[in-house]
Design goal:
With 199 residues, this protein is an alpha+beta fold. The chain is built from 3 helices and 3 strands. The protein has 2 domains: 68 residues, no CATH class; 108 residues, Methane Monooxygenase Hydroxylase, Chain G, domain 1 (Up-down Bundle), CATH 1.20.58.390. A 3-stranded antiparallel β-sheet has the order 1-3-2, with no helix packed on it.
Length: 199
């Protein structure tokens, strides 16, 4: 998958009007000789293969010589322009896990900023990619990066809700403790008053 893919380029040589009675095509023992090293901006030549076929047409038999060049894409540009920056954005969104639970605004700001930065990075990367109809490796990477940051925001919401419930429970137990103390005081006063009148 792009950008970790390889491409093949075939060159087919065949006579147009002369069959094997007049023209024969055959590869030498060393079929291909490179005069100088091939340097392409986005690809490396990783190999080639040759093939010889004899094809039968209505007008006779023709020789066909075929060479297939295989190129591997150079992906260093995509690593430094796409994968590393988005990885750092996702990792920076995880810093919010170490913030205090009560610093909700800082955690929300960090999560949303990371999501916006990732969206901006993805839009910037898309401008430099070829428009193809299939899913690229970079698309899957970006999708999972967005999912990771979104899960960070979901975790923030869950932790904030659990913290709120814990605070309400503590406040409720304090209120309940206060009312229990009031009831004990009233009971004590009542029992003391009852003892005074009883004597």
């Amino acid at each position: 998958m792009f950008p970790f893919d390889s491409l093949s380029c075939e060159i087919v040589l065949e006579s147009y009007s002369f069959n094997t009675d007049e023209v024969r095509l055959q590869w030498h023992d060393v079929p291909i000789t490179m005069m100088e090293k091939v340097e392409l901006p986005d690809f490396d030549l990783i190999g080639w293969s040759t093939d010889h076929q004899r094809l039968e047409y209505p007008n006779g038999i023709w020789d066909r010589a075929k060479v297939k060049f295989t190129f591997a894409r150079r992906y260093g540009f995509y690593l430094f322009q796409s994968y590393f920056p988005t990885s750092l954005t996702v990792i920076s969104s995880w810093v919010g896990f170490f913030f205090d639970v009560r610093s909700v605004s800082a955690r929300i700001t960090l999560g949303v900023s990371s999501l916006l930065a990732l969206t901006f990075q993805f839009g910037n990367v898309l401008r430099h990619l070829p428009r193809v109809s299939y899913i690229k490796c970079l698309d899957v990477w970006m999708l999972f990066s967005v999912i990771f940051i979104f899960c960070t925001l979901v975790e923030l919401a869950i932790v904030c809700q659990l913290n709120r419930w814990e605070r309400e429970r503590q406040i409720g137990s304090k209120v309940l403790g206060h009312w229990l103390n009031q009831i004990r005081l009233v009971a004590f006063i009542f029992s003391s008053t009852y003892e005074i009148y009883y004597i």
